[in-house]
Amino acid sequence: MKRYLLGLSLIITLVFSGCVWGQTFTTIAEDDASNYSGSGTPNFGLNINDNGGSGFNSWTWADSGTSRSAFLGHGPNDDHGDIGNPSFGLFADTGGNTINAFRSFDELNNGDVFEVEFTINFRDGAKGVEIFKDGTGVFLFQSSNAFGDKYEYRDQNGDFNDTGWPYQANSIFKLTIKQLSENNIDITVERTNSTGHSVTLSNVNVSGRVDEVRFFNLDAGGGEQNFYFNNLKIERPTYTTIADGDFSATSTWENGDIPNGNGIVNINHDVVLDGDFISTGEINIAEDKTLTVNEANVLTNNGTININGDLVFKSNASNTAQYGNSSGTIVGDVTVERFIPSRRAFRFLSSPVGGVDIAD
Asked: For residue 301, is pLDDT > 80?
């Protein structure tokens, strides 16, 4: 226990453990076909039981028929667009053959962005990508020759929508999913090697968080009818201090990006929070640096706080800063500075931690 004499007031310190200008992101999961040797480990195919890259779970499969396979290949060899050499390939011959490759991952946090590229030549059969949450498909994009030769998507209501885009050989697509909140996402599909061909669904309610992707080829045929995809990635918004200062000042943060409660917050300087802040992500306080929460303000953590420096809660004669926590963890030390008037009278101090005796 430390005691500081400041003017006429005694402060008792208790320690216990426990607007975008070019947003910065941290890659938390990535994989591409160059991580698979083809003859060593991992080896991409229907019997794969390990992973390349990082941050994704193992591949799982659903397939039927006898003429289907998963392979590594280079799209231009089959007159497809170039999304990397090698890329992941799926083959499913006509006559009822199907192949589905699933990749799950930790559910997206608010602000997280999932991306993947894929290339389609002829629109035979059905080939594309589907996004899931808790085993339920919430969005699908495909090429299809069923009921018309087209590129289409299935929305959150289960309705199929024709994009109206004309056929283009060697088409390259990019699918982007951004988790906005507990239940809402933004969805964008664009044909990156053409102009004006994109579809965006904004603030779509999918009743959950995205946690899986499916790649499929159904009854298409081989060669130019194969399906290629590559460059899977999940990125998390990251906010990093560049100077001592006010938490809400653009001059404190890299690119002027003030944290909005999502993603990763790296505090590498002495920062003062003079306002309430709710974090659903991760807060990291560097060694020998301090995050100070001023009087009457609340820091709420629904994620994780890693403290290598100091987290300090201030108080005055009428208010004490608070930490609200409905989930998550604290690693490190937290200091509560309790304001005590300098008068000749006994004062009772309770523990600043709910459910913890002051002696502990």
From this structure: yes
Tell me the pLDDT tens digit for each residue of 85-108: 999 999 999 999 999 999 999 999
Alpha carbon separation from 185 to 105, 260, 324 (Å, rounded) = 16, 17, 26
Residue-wise DSSP of 41-86: SS--STT--S-SSBSEEEEEEEEESSSEEEEEE-GGGGT---S-SS
Q: How far apart are CA 298 and CA 301, in angstroms?
A: 10
Read off the pTM. Answer: 0.89
DSSP labels, 150-204 = EEEEE-TTS-EEE--PPP-TTEEEEEEEEE-SSSEEEEEEEETTSSS-EEEEEEE
Is residue 279 over pLDDT 90? yes
Query: What is the pLDDT, as a whole number, of residue 356?
Result: 83
Cα diameter, the chain: 92
Confidence of residue 21 (pLDDT cuts 50, 70, 90): very low
Beta strands 264-267; 282-285: pairing state:
parallel
Q: State the Cα–Cα distance between residues 293 and 136, nearest whole angstrom.
A: 41
Closest CA to 328 of 14, 18, 16: 18
DSSP 354: T
β-bridge pairing 56-64 and 98-105: antiparallel
Outline where the chain has alpha helix (H): none
Task: Categorize the per-residue pLDDT at 38 as very low, low, confident or very high, splitting at 50, 70 and 90.
Answer: low
Contact 321, 344 (CB under 8 A): no
Distance CA 249, CA 274 (A): 11
Residue 51 near residue 42, CB atoms below 8 Å: yes
